[in-house]
Each structure stands twice: as C-alpha cells, then as structure tokens.
Design goal:
alpha/beta; pyruvate-formate lyase- activating enzyme; 2 domains; nine-stranded mixed beta sheet; 46% helix
C-alpha cells in the first residue's frame, strides 16, 4: 500500500498545481450576481495571530491592536457590500488567524451578519488562551454556537516545538480550560494534528487519553500535518522532517481509539460523540463567499481570491469595492472533481444529486476516476449512493491533505506579490 500511497500523492500534487493557480486569471473581478436558487455559506477571514506557528501556511500576521481594529471596520463594510448585492447567507464561519484576538470587534461583526441575514449556524475559530476571557461569553450572546479550538497536541515537548507552550500554557492547563468550556456552546470542537516529526505512538495515545477520558470532548478533528513551501524551512528547523510513511498507521490508530470510545466518524478526519455535530468542512453548500484579506470564494464554477495585502484590502474596501483581486474559471471536469472530493469527504455521495447538478454528465465525465477508485477498493456502491470503504477513508485523508497543500501553494503565490509588506507585518511583535 505504501507504493500506491506515494503514486496517488504524486498524481494529486500534479493535479492541484494545474487547477490551483491564478496564472492568466482575470484581475480585479467583481462578485457575480447571486443565484436565487443557490444556498451560500459566508466565510470571514481574520488574519491576525499573537503567535505564528511554524507549520501554519494560512494567511496570518502578528496581532497589533492599532491595525486589527480598523481591519474589522473594513470587514464590516465588505459584509454590507455583498448584502447590498443580494447575497443571502444562512451559515457563517469565521477563521484565521485567530478571530478572537479582539472578541468585542468579532462580536460586533457577527452581530452585523445576523442583523442582515437569517443566519442560524455560526462557527468561530479560537486558541486555548481565549476560552477563559469575558469576550468569549459575548460571542454566545450574538449567536455563536460552534467554537473550534486549535490545540494540536497536549504534549509539552511538541507544544514547545510549535512555539505554543509559553503563550498558551502546558497541555494540562489547556485540557483544564477545555474541560471547563464543555457545554458553553452547542459544539466545542478540538483541532488536533497527527504525524509531527517527533510525535510518537505513545504521545499520540496520551493525547487520545486526554481527549476521551479526561475532557470527554464533544468533537475532535484530527488533521494530518500539512506543509507548504513557505513553511517547510521553519518546519525543518523547529520541528524536523515529516515522515509520511507512518501517516496511515497513526491515522488507523486514531480511528480505532475514537471508535472504541463511542465517537462517530462524520468525515474522514472528524469524530463526534453526540449526533448532529457537523465537521466544519462538511457543509450543505456547493458555493461560498469569502470576505477579508486572504479569503477565497467559490462561485458559479470560478475560484476568487481576495488580496493578501492588508494595505490594498483597506484601500479597496474604503473606496467602495470588495477585496477581490483574482478570478479563475475552472473547467467542467475540474468542477466535478472538486464536487467529488468534497462530498465523499463526509463518507458518501448521492449520485442522483450529482447527476442533476451537472446536467446528467457526472458519472460519464468522471468514469476514469470512479473506475480507479472502485478498482483500488476506495469506494463501493450502495444503491444510488457512493460510500467510502475503510481503505477509502485514509485515501481521502491523503487527498484532502494534498488539496489543502495545493491551496497553501496558492497562498504562497498570492503572498509572493506582497513579500515586503507580508514580512513587515509578520515580524512585528504583538501589541
């Protein structure tokens, strides 16, 4: 299986390089008019962090109060722009960065979205040190019902390598905060990472023990360690070289332990103790609008990118325009491949719905891909539904890792154009 894993990984990397780039893309586009038949998810990006983790390739810069407060003001202006354009949202996800660096500003922003849209579900990312702050309680008051906490590990040695030990406390301290926060929101999700260079099976087991027995976590998302060109050097210096040959073994260990403890697998890497808890990557939305510097949107078969320049973002929005700078139209087959990837991530895909969405061409256009997946034992047919097999679940972990690594490469491409500005923002100390 290792040879097959390597082969698939190589194919995915080549495919992602072909699709996830903006070479020849339309510059300074506008959002298309909304389709009244379409449901939309709203994503807001807050790029500010107090700590810049060496493995993270998301668009993030060091937190400074004098920069962050005006950023939230610009973000609220952009929210009004898309609302006036006719977009209607019934779910909101706020990511980063660390959106809770200024909880009062975040609460005001979430409140605006709820004022303008019939939003029922609101998810927000945060770090462990923000759980005990008064501002978190304000988020409950404006309707935040899902909080996703970036923990990564409870192992103090690994936390130190990640530069997270001093700012966020020891693994035991973090576990204590999480235990107290249980029940504060409808869903408290804990983000973990596996396959760190110095992570052993014993340390992974200890992390699982804390989650299952000590905290009794509602939901846990276990992400494979992902790298990008922009983070590879820092990763190597601070944490060591990644060994992908053991990734499958660690994943299977996680699945076994979580399953034995009564957790249901709601996606390839998300496990929930209670029914009805949904992975942030599993959404009933085929299209989404991303606002804020560094956000992406997927609308009507095109990928849109907002500027990664914080200065340019402020100028665009303050002049009455959204922060968009690039648009790339995807081919029909690439749209279908993307649909296949995202839908099967949850474990199943309704072929009837897929056929209807793509004018009856889904199965015929993707026959090579579907045949290959069946031949390697990754999927099986259950009536009109495609389902992942146990082998398929790990394949999808690999595929999603490859996809997000491709997205990270796209972020690197966007940051390349603003290298001096990005370095200046990234190197400034928190204030």
């Amino acid at each position: 299986m290792r040879f097959l894993d390597i082969l698939i990984d190589g194919v995915l990397r080549r495919a992602n390089r072909r699709v996830l780039n903006f070479s020849g893309a339309e510059e300074e586009p506008a959002f298309p008019p909304p389709d009244p038949r379409q449901r939309y998810l709203l994503y807001l990006h807050v790029p500010y962090c107090r700590v810049l983790c060496p493995f993270c390739s998301f668009h993030r810069v060091r937190f400074r109060r004098d920069r962050t407060e005006p950023y939230f003001e610009s973000l609220r202006r952009e929210i009004r722009f898309v609302s006036e354009a006719g977009y209607v949202f019934d779910e909101l996800y706020v990511g980063g960065g660390t959106p809770t660096v200024m909880p009062g500003e975040l609460a005001q922003t979430v409140g605006l979205v709820r004022e303008l849209h019939p939003v029922q579900a609101v998810s927000v990312e945060t770090n462990p040190d923000d759980l005990e702050k008064e501002g978190i309680r304000r988020l409950r008051e404006v309707g935040v019902n899902r909080v996703s906490v970036g923990v990564q590990s409870f192992d103090d040695a690994l936390l130190a390598e990640m530069q997270r030990l001093d700012p966020y406390g020891s693994g035991a301290e973090i576990a204590g905060r999480l235990k107290k926060a249980q029940g504060s929101f409808d869903t408290l999700n804990i983000d973990m990472i596996f396959n760190f260079p110095h992570q052993t099976e014993d340390s992974l087991d200890r992390d699982l023990d804390v989650l299952i027995s000590d905290i009794g976590a509602d939901q846990v998302s276990w992400y494979p360690l992902m790298t990008a060109a922009s983070t590879r050097r820092a990763m190597l210096e601070d944490m060591g070289r990644v060994d992908y040959s053991r990734e499958r073994r660690l994943y299977e260990r996680i699945v076994r332990r979580m399953s034995d403890a009564g957790y249901a697998r709601v996606s390839a890497w998300c496990f929930s103790r209670r029914p009805g808890l949904v992975d942030e990557y599993i959404a009933d939305y085929d299209e989404y609008v991303g606002l804020g510097s560094g956000a992406f949107s997927y609308l009507q078969g095109s990928l849109y990118a907002s500027t990664f320049s914080l200065n340019h973002y402020a100028r665009l929005v303050n002049s009455g325009k959204p922060g968009l700078t690039m648009r790339r139209e995807m081919s029909g087959r690439d749209r279908m491949r993307y649909y296949l990837l995202m839908r099967l991530f949850s474990g199943s895909l309704d072929l009837g719905a897929a056929q209807e969405r793509f004018g009856g061409r889904f199965e015929s256009s993707l026959r090579p891909e579907l045949t290959a997946l069946r031949l390697i034992g990754a999927i099986r047919s259950d009536g009109a539904t495609l389902r992942l097999t146990e082998r398929g679940y790990y394949l999808w972990v690999m595929m999603m890792r490859g996809f997000f690594s491709g997205v990270s490469g796209l972020r690197d491409e966007m940051r390349h154009h603003i290298a001096d500005e990005h370095a200046a923002f990234a190197d400034r100390p928190a204030g």
